[in-house]
Amino acid sequence: MLYRDLGKTGEKVSILGFGGMRFPTINNQPNRIDEKEASKMLKYGIDNGINIIDTAYSYHTLDFNEPGKSEPFLGDFLSTGYREKVLISTKLPSWIVEKKEDMDIFLDQQLDRLKTESIDIYLIHSLKEDYWKNLTNLNIFEFMDNALSDGKIKHIGFSFHDELDLLLEILDSYEWEVVLTQMNYLDEGYQSGINGVQYLSSINMGNMIMEPLRGGKLVDNIPPEVEKIWNSAPIKRSPVEWAFKYLWDMPGISTVFSGMSTLEQVKENVSIANNSYPNTLTIEEKNVIKEVSRAYRDKKDVPCTQCNYCMPCPQKVDIPTCFKEYNIAKMLNNPEASSMQYFSLIDEENYASSCTKCGECVHMCPQMINIPNELEKVKKLFGR
Ligand code: SF4
Ligand code: SF4
């Protein structure tokens, strides 16, 4: 398996990383990891070259405000002789930090839960505007300086689910070393997207990638029109292989975290990683991927281009984001995942349900979308 530099950290990471949010569970309960099976998967992955695992305070929980089971499970597993073989990446639960001391409390708990003296890569979880504002008001910079100088963490970064301008603003605020962003061939224009990846690469920032398969939706229940394109490609590959090859073709990406749930998935992904190299996709192959992406996009229900001309709405409805998440739900036929994004990215006062149908936005839309009518559909799909 190839290893790449993690930006300027001095670390070398395997191009395939283990995502610790989708371990197999007992009776489909997220807070009950099937530890025997998950341990087998981790052993196989690490014995076959994976050297980085990503987790978070809240992975494998029923309530994202509570500590999950992923960290303590990994702490137990790694203490069986695997700790020295991997880098641990975990995250500060930024949305439940209320006081300055909370940050130290969470970090100390995480060191305990992971049974380690130092966390290799510590990420501020899921930064978006309001969390970032709160954390800067609480002087997160001092917390990070101290955690680094005490040796409790070795490298500092953040994970990100917002737009490019906020990414740039946060990058300018501190000596970050690593950023975790969402990327796959369907998300080039979503959140910080491909522009974010290219910018991070241009400044030699360690760029770790999440959601390479969009929570499995790029490989499960593939629409017939997409299947047809894959089948007509000059080289026969599984959709999983296409999705990973798309990412590993980009030399600026350090590692791609995959939240694997079975041993077969680990074996398949390791085997794909063993045959993936940067700058090797041909123009023809890239065109196949573009065609697939277009076929998914054609399934969009509302022709919103995210131009923002309809904003601001007097009732504060976040019209473009409402349509964006609604369209993704339609494209991937996965309202559950989009609903999670909808409720985490949009504040309650900005939901589609705040629309009073005043009609002020309608004449602003160059796509002539009947915005209040279409927002009704969003409301119906996601509720309040
Ligand atoms: S119709 Fe709805 S979305 Fe449009 S401006 Fe009025 S309240 Fe806002
Ligand atoms: S003006 Fe129309 S196309 Fe532009 S963001 Fe608003 S709804 Fe979408």
Distance between the termini: 46 Å
Overall tally of domains: 2
* Sequence of strands across the biggest β-sheet: 3-4-5-6-7-8-9-10
Shape: globular
Class based on secondary structure composition and strand pairing: alpha/beta
Quaternary form: single chain
Which range does the strand content fall in? 5-15%
Bound molecules: iron/sulfur cluster
- Number of β-strand runs: 10
- Weakly predicted, low-confidence segments: none
The number of helical elements comes to 14
What's the pLDDT, averaged over the residues?
94
CATH homologous superfamily name of the largest domain?
A: NADP-dependent oxidoreductase domain
Radius of gyration: 21 Å
InterPro entries: 4Fe4S_Fe-S-bd, 4Fe4S_Fe_S_CS, AKR2_Oxidoreductase, Helical_ferredxn, NAD(P)_OxRdtase_dom_sf, NADP_OxRdtase_dom
Domain 4Fe-4S ferredoxin-type: 342-374
Protein name: 4Fe-4S ferredoxin-type domain-containing protein
GO molecular function, one term: iron-sulfur cluster binding
